[in-house]
Structure formats: structure tokens, C-alpha cells
Design a protein that fits this description.
The complex is a heterodimer. Chain A is mostly helical. Chain A contains twelve helices and no strands. The longest helix of chain A has 25 residues. In chain B, strands 2-9-8-4-5 form a five-stranded mixed beta sheet. The longest helix of chain B has 23 residues. Classes of the chains: A mainly alpha, B alpha+beta.
């Protein structure tokens, strides 16, 4: 992913903004990162020309969703080597992908509308520039059909059945293919995290500590959403 | 692990989408390294250039501040929702068709359009809350309007008023709210004279996505007017936000389950019934 390269806010300022998304700290965060979110959402919306007139709405929706379900943002870990701007871009891009598909009335089974505050740890562990780059290379190295399917659905945002049909798959077979492809990708990701990109395991206790720091900071500054499990994990890690 | 399998794939997809040559070019615009016109020149056709400029041309500072004000107003209107990823929120009446059906009540509210700077601030903003109550039912019906030969039954759901209609005072929340001891009162009016008997089935979807069928025991007049007047405690709705789905049609045509409605919509079929949506809050 290309790097947005903005002047980053301090972690505490980010935490303060997330703790109170209506205060001055949040205004500062918004002004700093709005261009990043706009860019990330734009890169998605541009793939669906019919959504371009609704672009501003989608950007707003992305902000609303990110602020309402802050688990992904709270998982930000500077120790993973991803600047907050790039992190925002990634989570905004993914959210835009989902919201755009909703607007396009893609079928429900494509939207995965589960609560977003569910078990993010594994996904967050992937949010390192080197890990994502290596995973993208793995996707490039998949067999032709898998690679085309991944690009068609997860990058271009086309419907599962349409991408599958191009590959000669029936609707049902397309969904089965997608599930298997996801498992394959997750297995690659797990192996990469365990093996480590440069020989050392990625993530781990040290980075989890930093990850919890932003969430804990938000809690200290008056925000709500830090689960007791997370805080218990923090205490455990300290020991 | 299926729940996070797709999320992993989505994040990798996001990374790849943001690594494309087009993304890189527009990132350079964001960084101030090239102009929007220079980035647009990389696009294939004139039409693509036009679309890209509409999306990526940076807003003026004034416009950005207006967008921020809009966002803050939306967050404020949500009461505690922005601070609690699990808790309830307040919001506006949201009705209507496929969009509402696909979303939880909270998501449905988030989908509203509020980016017009002219709408930011005092009176205009208040209108944003007043108008949806009227507009919601209208849009619900508008979505059901189809070519004459495809037309099924068409109804209008009059805006739900929540407890405010009982108390005679403006509602504190733009979302129609009902206490446990109040009554759900709703009127569904046929757009055209109804000549054959009609019936109603109702469903409710919780913000967690759980679907329940409701027994509302409506009164149905010979002209097709449907009136629901039932104690909230009898509806089976517990405290929280609900998407209410009301279906009116000939008894033989009515869906027996929620999935039947979904199947008909996804198949693009014109059912022999009208579907109306609204969002309400109990408790």
C-alpha cells in the first residue's frame, strides 16, 4: 500500500480524540486524517461509477461506522510499523467496500454484517506493512482461478456470483470457492505470523502491550469501549 | 473462524486496492506532489477522468469544516451511540425499502445523507429531523412504485409518533420511542382503493439481527385502512431498537416468513403485498 504520509498526531492525541469524538481533539484528528479517509474511500468508490454521486455520503458513513464501532481503531499498534494514517486508510477502505456494497444492494450473504467488535485480534495482527505486502504477494502467487476470484471480489468489489460465473462456477460453487479461498488466505496469514516475515514471529506480547495502550488510554480519557477481557489481557501481559 | 476469515481477506483486499497505480497517483495528489489534473490524466477515458476528479479533488477548507460540522451533528444526535460499541443509540425515523431492510436500525440511520453544507446549523438542522418522519413513509412507498403492469398493493405507513403522541410533547429523540407501558399505534393507508380483503403480517428485527414475527391484531376497514393499536408489552418487543416491517396484502399472497420476503426482493419479483419499514425504540 502506498503511504499517505501525513504529519501524524501523537498517540495520546489520537486516544483523546477517540475518547470523545465530539471534542476539539477529535476535530484535530478529523482535519488531519480526513484526506486519508477520503482517498481510501475514493479508491473504492471509483470502482463503482454509479456510486460516485454518493461519494460524500459514503465517506461520512465510513466515519460514523469507525467512530461507532471503534474496536478496529482502538487496536492500532504503532509497534507494528504502520503509521496511523495508513492504518486509517486500511480500515476505511475495508469499511467503504462494505458500505458501498450495501448501497449497491449486493445480497446479504456478501456483506457479512456481523458485529464489528468481534474478535479483531487476529486481523489486527496482520496490520503491518510487511505482513500485508507479503500476503499480497501470496495472493499474486495463487493459482489463476483463485487469484482472479480474489481480485474480482475483494479488490474490485464485484459480486461473488458474477466473479464465479466468469470462472465457470455456479452460484453455490462460487460461495464454496470463496470460503475455501478465504481459508487458504487465512492459513497463509497464520503461517506468516507464526513464522515471521523476517524470520521472527510477527506480533506477540510486546506488540499486544502497545496495542492495548491506545485502548487503555481511551478508557482513561473517558471513552467506554475497552472490554474487560482486553484489560485482563493487559494485566496478564504486564506480568 | 469463518467470521474473521472474510475479514482477513477484506483487509488484504483493501491493502491491494490501495496499492494500485491509480491509488498511488491520487495519493500523490493528497500529498501535494502532483495536481488532480495530472493524476486524472492517467485515467483511461474522459469519463473516467471526470469521475476521478469528482471523487478525489480535495475539498476546500470551508467545505471540509462543513463536513466536520455535519459529522459532529450526526454524532451528537446519536447520544451515547458513538461512545458505546454495544449500547443503544438514538436517532431518526428511518423507513424504507431495501436499504433499511439490509441494515440494523443503527446502520440504517447512519446511511442518511447529510453532507450538504447548507444543511449544517440551526434551523436547517432541525428540519433534518422533522422531515424524515414525513419523508420516511413516502420513500418507503416510492421504492415500491414500479411500472403499472408490475404494481402490487401500495400502502403508506403514516409516521410513527412514539410516546410523544400520548404526552403531547415533542419527543426527546427523533427516533419514535415507546415506554413499556405505552401503545404502538400505526396507520397503514392504501394509496388506491382496495377492493378485496387484506391482512397484515409483521416482523421486527433487533439491532442484533434477530428476526421475530409479531402478532399485532390490527383492525382492518373495508376500504383497506389498517390500524394497529396494541400495548407495547403485547408486541413481544423488548427494550432496544427495532426495525419494524409491516406487510399488507391479500391473505393468500402474504409471506409466511421473513426469508420469503427476502427471497422475493432478491429475485426482483413484484409480490402481491406491500412492505413498509420503520425504526423505533422501546424502553
Amino acid at each position: 500500500m502506498t503511504r499517505p504520509r501525513v504529519e501524524e498526531l501523537e498517540l495520546e492525541a489520537i486516544a483523546r480524540a477517540l475518547a470523545s469524538p465530539k471534542g476539539e481533539a477529535f476535530r484535530q484528528l478529523y482535519r488531519r486524517y480526513e484526506p486519508v479517509v477520503r482517498w481510501a474511500v475514493g479508491c473504492r468508490v471509483l470502482r463503482w461509477p454509479e456510486l460516485v454521486p454518493s461519494f460524500e455520503d459514503v465517506v461520512q458513513e465510513v466515519w460514523i461506522h469507525l467512530l461507532r464501532r471503534r474496536e478496529p481503531l482502538l487496536g492500532y499498534d504503532p509497534g507494528r510499523g504502520v503509521p496511523f494514517a495508513s492504518f486509517m486508510a486500511l480500515v476505511s477502505s475495508r469499511m467503504a467496500w462494505k458500505l458501498a456494497k450495501r448501497r449497491l444492494r449486493h445480497p446479504l450473504e456478501e456483506l457479512h454484517d456481523e458485529p464489528e467488535d468481534w474478535d479483531w485480534d487476529f486481523t489486527l495482527a496482520l496490520l503491518r506493512t510487511d505482513v500485508l505486502q507479503r500476503l499480497a504477494e501470496h495472493v499474486e502467487g495463487l493459482d489463476e482461478r483463485s487469484r482472479r476470484f480474489f481480485y474480482g471480489h475483494y479488490v474490485d468489489g464485484r459480486m461473488i456470483k458474477d466473479v464465479g460465473a466468469e470462472l465457470g462456477l455456479s452460484d453455490n460453487a462460487s460461495h464454496v470457492f470463496k470460503l475455501r479461498l478465504e481459508k487458504k488466505v487465512v492459513a497463509m496469514a497464520r503461517a506468516l505470523l507464526e513464522r515471521g516475515v523476517g524470520g521472527e514471529p510477527s506480533g506477540g506480547t510486546g506488540s499486544l502491550l502497545v496495542a492495548v495502550t491506545l485502548a487503555a488510554l481511551v478508557a482513561i480519557l473517558g471513552g467506554v469501549p475497552v472490554s474487560s477481557d482486553r484489560l485482563a489481557g493487559l494485566e496478564g501481559d504486564h506480568e | 473462524m469463518i467470521m474473521s476469515d472474510h475479514r482477513t481477506a477484506e483487509i488484504i483486499g483493501a491493502h491491494m486496492a490501495l496499492s494500485s497505480p491509480i491509488a498511488i497517483a491520487w495519493c500523490r495528489v493528497m500529498r501535494g506532489e502532483i495536481t488532480p489534473e495530472e493524476a486524472a490524466a492517467l485515467m483511461g477515458s474522459a469519463e473516467e477522468r471526470e469521475l476521478a476528479l469528482r471523487v478525489f479533488r480535495p475539498p476546500t477548507d470551508e467545505h471540509r469544516e462543513a463536513l466536520l460540522a455535519t459529522l459532529l451533528a450526526r454524532l451528537s444526535a446519536r447520544d451515547t451511540g458513538a461512545c458505546d460499541s454495544r449500547g443503544g443509540t438514538q436517532g431518526d425515523v428511518e423507513a424504507c425499502g431495501h436499504e433499511a431492510r439490509r441494515k440494523s436500525p443503527k446502520d440504517a440511520r447512519a446511511a442518511r445523507t447529510v453532507h450538504d453544507p447548507a444543511m449544517v446549523g440551526g434551523r436547517a438542522w432541525r428540519w433534518r429531523w422533522l422531515v424524515p418522519a414525513t419523508m420516511a413513509a413516502t420513500v418507503a412507498v416510492a421504492l415500491l412504485l414500479r411500472a403499472p403492469e408490475e404494481r402490487a398493493m401500495r400502502y403508506t405507513l403514516e409516521p410513527l409518533m412514539g410516546d410523544s403522541i400520548m404526552r403531547g410533547a415533542p419527543a426527546a429523540s427523533p427516533l419514535p420511542s415507546y415506554s413499556r407501558g405505552s401503545r404502538l399505534y400505526a396507520v397503514l393507508r392504501p394509496n388506491e382503493p382496495v377492493e378485496s380483503p387484506v391482512a397484515l403480517v409483521a416482523f421486527a428485527r433487533s439491532s442484533g439481527g434477530q428476526i421475530s414475527r409479531l402478532e399485532l391484531r390490527p383492525e382492518i376497514a373495508s376500504n383497506g385502512l389498517v390500524t394497529i393499536d396494541v400495548p407495547i408489552s403485547d408486541t413481544g418487543l423488548h427494550d432496544g431498537e427495532w426495525e419494524l416491517v409491516l406487510v399488507v396484502g391479500r391473505p393468500s399472497a402474504l409471506p409466511s416468513s421473513w426469508s420469503e420476503i427476502e427471497r422475493a426482493e432478491e429475485a426482483g419479483k413484484t409480490p402481491g403485498y406491500a412492505v413498509m419499514y420503520a425504526v423505533l425504540r422501546v424502553g
